[in-house]
Amino acid sequence: MEIPSLMRRLGALLIDWIIAAFSAVTLAGVRYPPAPLDEDPSQTFIIIGFFVLEVGLLTGLVGCSIGKRLLGMRIENPDGRPIGVPRAILRTLLLCLVLPAIVMTDDKRGIHDLAAGSRVVKA
């Protein structure tokens, strides 16, 4: 099992965020960039909602988001299978808080991975 680099993970996160933002623009009429939070926080929260749904559902069902798939990574539980939708949604919500993803163990698992019982590995 090989652990992907932080740059690869950030690249996948950026790809997933762009997909969520374009989806929100196309399907929900959000403008991009969204209005500042003090003017209209709903636009940002709609994009976050699309991000959580896209990443959470794909990760839970097939083991990777679009960004992770493109960059050769997957999310798995300790026995190598996808973590399931509820745990993937939890993981993605914690990822949106940023800090749980920054604080990592020696084996490069963030708090969001520890809470979900998951790990990121190269596909």
Compact summary:
This protein has 123 residues and is mainly alpha-helical. The protein contains six helices and two strands, in the order αααβαααβ.
Question: Could you explain the architecture of this structure?
Answer:
Its main location: membrane. Keywords: Cell membrane, Membrane, Transmembrane, Transmembrane helix. Residues 4-117 form the RDD domain. It is found in: Cell membrane. By secondary structure, the protein is mostly helical. The protein has one domain (6-122). It has helices at 6-28, 41-62, 66-70, 85-96, 99-102, 111-116; strands at residues 73-76, 119-122. Helix 1 packs across helix 2 (41-62) and helix 2 (41-62) packs antiparallel against helix 4 (85-96). The longest helix has 23 residues, at 6-28. It is globular and about 45 Å long.
Walk me through the topology.
Elements: H1 6-28, H2 41-62, H3 66-70, E1 73-76, H4 85-96, H5 99-102, H6 111-116, E2 119-122
Antiparallel strand pairs: 1-2
Helix pairs in contact: 1-2, 2-4
List key phrases describing it.
mainly alpha; Pra-immunoreactive; membrane; cell membrane; RDD family protein; 59% helix; transmembrane; two-stranded antiparallel ribbon
Mean pLDDT: 95
Can you tell me the overall shape?
globular
Quaternary structure state of the chains depicted: single chain
- The termini sit apart by 9 Å
- Residues in β-strands, percent: 5-15%
Tell me the series of helices and strands, N- to C-terminal: HHHEHHHE
Pick out the low-confidence regions: none
Query: Biggest sheet, strands in spatial order?
Result: 1-2
The proportion of residues forming helix, as a percent range, comes to 55-70%
Count all strands and give the number.
Answer: 2
Give the number of helices: 6
The major beta sheet can be summarized as:
2 strands, antiparallel
Structural class: mainly alpha
Number of domains: 1
Domain RDD: 4-117
Transmembrane segments: 12-32, 44-67, 88-105
InterPro entries: Pra-immunoreactive, RDD
Pfam families: RDD
